Amino acid sequence: MVPGFRFAVRRSMWMGEIMSNRTYSACLALLTVWLVTAAAPSPALSLTNLFVLHHSVGRNILEEGNVRQLLDDHNVQRGTRLVLWDHDYNAIGLMDPDGDLADRYYDIPDDDTYVVGLHQLWTTANSARDSILANHQVIAFKSCYGASLIETDAMLAQYKAWYLEIRDVLDQHPDHVFLLMSSPPMHPCLSTSTEADRGRAFADWLGSTAFLGGHPNLRFFDLFDVLASPRDAEDRNTLRANYCKSTSCSSPDSHPNAAANLVAGPLLVAALVAAAGEDAVDAPAAAATAFFTDVHPNPFNPTTTIRFALPAAGSARLAVYDVTGRLVRTLIDGNLAAGAHEASWDGRDAAGRSAASGVYLARLSTASGAGVVRVTLAK
Asked: What is the pTM of this model?
């Protein structure tokens, strides 16, 4: 174990003294199953071993975005068996599906995950490439945020040329699915608008039909777009101000903050799940699914906040049920934008009456599926 490194984020919901008898426990379990399976079930997944190659930005998304917990929740809800491995800097190495150090090191060439390093990894013979291909089925990778600071048009052209050569190699492995991720944007104090515009152009190109079309084992997750200010904003194509650890130019940091990772984490899980879809190499990606990201406090009195993320804009309904299946309160029912959302519940029903102490089930339903989380009201 490397001292000081233990990056797995694990949520643990204290449930209180709720299992007073076997009948109550069975009723609650059956209701939970009903609430989840009321939506159309996911298809069986043929690819189960997921892998993410990253450095610090990716590490923070996995941790602060609760990626492993969300993947565990998906497995429970859908009956899947997806497992996630990830590789950090070479000195840290591989993390196992529990988020623990595996004491294994793939020795990424030059420890480099910028565009030039990824090009070396995939287009040259090396032990890291061999290990990744031998041990994992769905492989996600991205360049560091510095790749979004593209100083010249010639540099942008070079990045595209390198990725075309990477694509040629990935085409040789149709038994794998590769999830290409765009680079995170730079802090607005560290990039000119022209450089940032090129960063956006690179991300757009990676997700385009011109690059992905005709390559059925390639998928794309636009992390740049998730984190960057809109194209028409004053600080366009740089890290959103509310996602910056500090907006001061005296101490700029391009690492997205916890709020950003809370949004990016569920979207990354949705992209990984879609990439692992049934007959994933030949079929279109499965629909991305909404995820709960947090319930806090839980247990609660008098109010709790339920947070969730949507991978795409659309209709969503968040409702609270008691353990008999009776609807207690509808918190949200309408169209929502993609990204992070939250709703507060004050422990009251639709008529304003105080609900009794105990366990309740919050059900989030969207066009792509449904999920349930337990909420405990403790008076």
From this structure: 0.65
